[in-house]
Specification:
By secondary structure, the chain is of the alpha+beta class. The chain is built from twelve helices and 55 strands. Among the domains are: 33 residues; 126 residues, Immunoglobulins (Immunoglobulin-like), CATH 2.60.40; 98 residues, Immunoglobulin-like (Sandwich); 99 residues, Sandwich (Immunoglobulin-like). The strands form 14 sheets. The chain has an eight-stranded parallel sheet with strand order 38-35-34-33-32-43-42-39. The protein has a seven-stranded antiparallel sheet with strand order 31-44-48-49-55-51-52, covered by helices on one side. Strands 1, 3, 4, 7, 8 and 9 form a six-stranded mixed sheet that branches. Helix 4 runs parallel beside helix 6 and helix 11 packs parallel to helix 12.
């Protein structure tokens, strides 16, 4: 503990020195500004004691402050206080003990101590309480000359002989202040049986509207912690205290804590509600009775939820017509069922919160659903027959799909990504992405100053783009290319240098400061990495880390984002997640950190880029992992989540870029035929490498998803690659990839598709020829084999299938699959279907899929040079 405080003090001094140096550059006098007053801290609190009368005649309470430099930080003074009852403490704070101001200072260790000796020889059974007020006085401070800290309350308890000793409360529950609707932290009491006696303590928590030990309501469970319930809370102060009970031989003794205040401030505005149940597409055959659509939502800030249904003429959750009177969670369409047609609906979920200062309502639109009236299909001849085996079996399930998106580059030589660009990409009715990667620039040692510089120059939407992604329930990952140059071996932000180990503390705090700044500015992030491409020596912003250095960083700094709130998936999360260095190619650089259980516990997400060693991945036993460590739940990627459950760590592909590499070819990159090189990248990441997310470099660029006005593109317009990725983003995000058994295309050199690479984290053998024209395992930019992948929702009520028949970029190759028959797993019948098609005639257009009369099969017509995505609902 003492070592930690010393380190933190040194960090503070180093930061202060840097800030002073920076300030000197701007002062004509050349003198540093005065330091602000330092608030005293307590290293060792006075400890409560409990004895039987007659066992002791005196007790001693002691408080210690470690590593306090009087010359630089100020002079400390101490004053002890006492009170007889908690009510006295509530009313007056107790009374000063005359003359009890002693202090000793060790000039070698810089430790400061104050001791209180208490005569208990004449004290009767009961408890008296003590605490000390510590004052720091520094006439040279720049803001104020004094600051004060109060110690923990220590109880001195005496019991009659034969009675159980009163429990010892080591730390009382702490006061807390929250904004209404925020995630609450648990209140905690630390207590023990006196005299190192064994046995369990009992806990009784009470809630009160006033700061009193009377009239409280018993709440919570028999635990040393209590999570406050919003059902109890109101604005302003709310109070909790706990009784700690020790029992021996049929008798009990009780210690009562000091009441803790939970102060609730009004929120700024109502927060958007979270949709917990989305309405589902519905398919009815002509003449069938129509059922209802259902939506459900919950308030993210403890408001009241209501609903409003809309009809629409297109598959959009905007611009619809309000359906009068339809304000329930369910709605039954009133449409004709006598002829084939498609109808579209969505619901607005409305959160009303009276405990906010400004806008008291906020809405979230559900996804748009299609209600189809169709004719049942008879048996249809097909060229490819695809069955979906039981997705409930572990051998038929692969990785969870976190999502898809792009990188917002903050370098001046890249086009600005505007709010309109971000709306285009992340609006679920448009391109529908949900993953955004942002840069952490290292222009100085204060990340907030760097962001301010960007916002005031060529990146005014730095915060706003993050807010848009969060608004739509997405995930934002932040990546540093380098620490500030002051902490690197080459004193430069460019590659060719490493982070000096003595600055690990400062860099961890730098990343914390960035995440906290984003939260403070209403743009919280989901995840933060420690380095972009630590295994690449860049001629621009960069920093090299060895695998062992990254391991040691997490061993030394732990889960360094603890206490910094984040956001992802449409809700606030208690802590921003951490990510190891994002490898430039092979993810094997993560092995050192993953094979150490302590460093692994501090890493939440892994990332890699598919430059170079594209097919090498952490699921592959040939990637350098010790033999046998990948199999089963004891694999290198297995860990415990915050709730103690066994989970597999997610691996995100967070950067790749392919283009034609010359000014003449650049004009091709935004054309339809060149979409397949991009789609082969998506297939590599999702199907072959079993990774959980696909994030493209520079989401706005002529070779990317949105045009930048160069090489034949229109600034801000979606490109074919953008719509190609949308097929995956809008149809597979949040789902789990599942096995398929396709047969067909034998005339094109096909045969049975090779089996998937991984099944629940365990490697299995490939089946079939690698040159198959259906789902082969070749990794070539111009691979023209037909690709079919399937996905299921967590509740198995939805199945998505993405199918595409590519050609080579020069227009040659490929094959025409024709009709693809999709046989659903046993027990799944399609009662809803929506589909889109993209080809050179048009992008992301609605598409009709035939369903058999027993709803067990679907028929999709897929032509050469086409991309079709379908979602089926039970």
């Amino acid at each position: 503990m003492k070592k930690i405080n010393l380190v933190m003090a040194l960090i503070g001094l180093t930061l202060s020195a840097m800030l002073v140096f920076s300030g000197c550059e701007q002062l004509s006098t050349g003198e540093p500004p005065p330091r602000n007053i330092v608030k005293p801290f307590v290293s060792i609190q006075p400890k409560s004691v409990s004895h039987h009368i007659g066992d002791v005649s005196s007790v001693q309470l002691k408080i210690i402050i470690w590593d306090w430099n009087q010359e630089e930080e100020g002079q400390l003074s101490f004053q002890w206080y006492t009170f007889d009852t908690i009510e006295q403490y509530i009313d007056s704070g107790g009374k000063m003990i005359a003359g009890e101001t002693n202090m000793s200072y060790d000039s070698a260790s810089h430790d400061t101590t104050s001791v209180l000796d208490i005569d208990v020889s004449g004290q009767t059974a009961g408890t008296k309480y003590y605490y000390v007020v510590i004052t720091n006085t520094n006439p040279e401070a720049g803001d104020k000359t004094t600051d004060v800290t109060r110690s923990e309350v220590a109880a001195v308890s005496l019991s009659n002989p034969g009675d159980p000793l009163i429990p010892v409360i080591l730390r009382n529950p702490s006061d807390a202040t929250y904004t209404w609707g925020a995630i609450l932290n648990a209140l905690r009491v630390e207590a023990q049986k006196p005299g190192d006696k064994e046995g369990e303590l009992e806990y009784r928590w009470y809630f009160n509207r006033k700061r009193s030990m009377e009239g409280g309501t018993l709440t919570g469970e028999n635990q040393p912690s209590l999570l406050p319930d919003y059902e109890d809370l109101d604005l302003d102060n709310n109070y909790y205290y706990v009784e700690v009970i020790s029992s021996e031989n049929g008798k009990s003794a009780v210690a009562r804590s000091i009441p803790a205040s939970v102060f609730m401030e009004p929120g700024f505005r109502a927060l958007a509600p979270i949709i917990t149940i989305q309405p589902q597409d519905k398919l009815y055959f002509v003449g069938e009775t129509l059922g209802s659509l259902t939506v459900a939502g919950e308030s993210s800030d403890k408001g009241t939820i209501s609903y409003q249904w809309y009809s629409n003429t297109t598959a959009s959750s905007k611009g619809g017509t309000k359906i009068a009177g339809e304000t329930n969670a369910t709605y039954t369409p009133t449409i004709s069922n006598t002829s084939a047609n498609n109808y579209y609906y969505y619901a607005e979920v409305i959160n009303t919160n009276e405990k906010v200062k400004e806008e008291k309502t906020a809405t979230t639109a559900s996804k748009s659903v299609r209600v189809s009236i169709a004719n049942a299909a008879g048996e249809v001849a097909s060229n490819v027959k695809m069955t979906i085996p039981n997705p409930l079996l572990s051998e038929n399930r692969f990785q969870y799909i976190r999502g898809y998106g792009g990188m917002d580059v903050a370098w001046g030589n890249f086009p600005r990504t505007t709010r309109d660009d971000t709306e285009l990409m992340y609006d679920p009715d448009r391109l529908g992405y949900n993953m955004l990667r942002i840069m952490i620039r290292a222009d100085n040692v204060d990340p907030s100053e760097t962001i301010n510089m960007l916002v005031n120059s060529d990146r005014p939407d730095y915060y706003e783009n993050v807010k848009i992604v969060n608004k739509y329930g997405g995930y934002v990952a932040a990546s540093p290319w380098t620490p500030p140059k002051e902490w690197k071996s080459n004193n430069s932000i460019n590659g060719g240098g490493y982070l000096l180990p003595r600055y690990y503390d400062l860099f961890a705090q730098y990343l914390r400061n960035f995440a906290q700044n984003m939260y403070n500015n209403g743009a919280p992030i989901y995840c933060i990495s420690i380095s972009n491409e630590p295994n690449y020596v860049a001629g621009y912003d960069g920093c090299e880390w060895t695998p062992e250095e990254m391991r040691d960083f997490f061993l030394e700094q732990g889960h360094f984002t603890n206490g910094i709130r984040g956001y992802g998936g449409g809700k606030e999360i208690p802590t921003v997640l951490t990510m190891n260095g994002e490898s430039a190619n092979t993810p094997g650089i993560n092995i050192a950190a993953l094979e150490n259980s302590k460093s692994k516990a501090n890493i939440d997400v892994l990332a890699r880029h598919i430059y170079g060693e594209r097919r090498t991945n952490l699921w592959d036993v040939n990637s350098g992992i010790k033999s046998g460590t990948v199999a089963g739940n004891e694999g290198i990627l297995a860990k415990k989540d915050a709730d103690g459950n066994d989970v597999m760590m997610e691996i995100w592909m967070t950067e790749h870029n392919i283009n034609s590499a010359n000014a003449t070819g650049y004009y091709n990159d935004s054309t339809w035929n060149y979409v397949w090189r991009f789609m082969n990248d998506v297939d590599l990441v999702i199907r072959l490498n079993n990774e959980n997310a696909f994030v493209w470099w520079a989401s706005k660029r002529f070779y990317s998803m949105v045009g930048d006005g160069q090489f034949g593109t229109t600034d801000g317009a979606p490109l074919p690659r953008g719509w190609g990725l949308s097929h995956y983003a809008r149809f597979t995000t949040g789902m789990t990839r599942i096995a398929i058994n396709p047969v067909g295309l034998a005339a094109s050199g096909g045969g049975v598709s090779p089996a998937q690479t991984m099944r629940d984290g365990q490697q299995i053998s490939h089946v079939g020829r690698s040159a198959s024209k259906l789902n082969n395992v070749l990794d070539e930019p111009d691979n023209d084999a037909v690709r079919i992948t399937a996905f299921t929702s967590a509740d198995y009520n939805e199945i998505s299938v993405v199918l595409w028949a590519p050609i080579k970029a020069d227009g040659s190759g490929g094959c025409d699959p024709g009709i693809v028959e999709i046989a659903f797993p046993s027990g799944f019948t399609a009662h809803g279907v929506t589909a889109v098609i993209s080809n050179k005639e048009g992008l992301f257009r609605p598409y009709d899929v035939k369903i058999s009369s027993d709803r067990s099969k679907a028929y999709v017509e897929l032509g050469k040079n086409e991309l079709v995505s379908v979602k089926f609902s039970k």
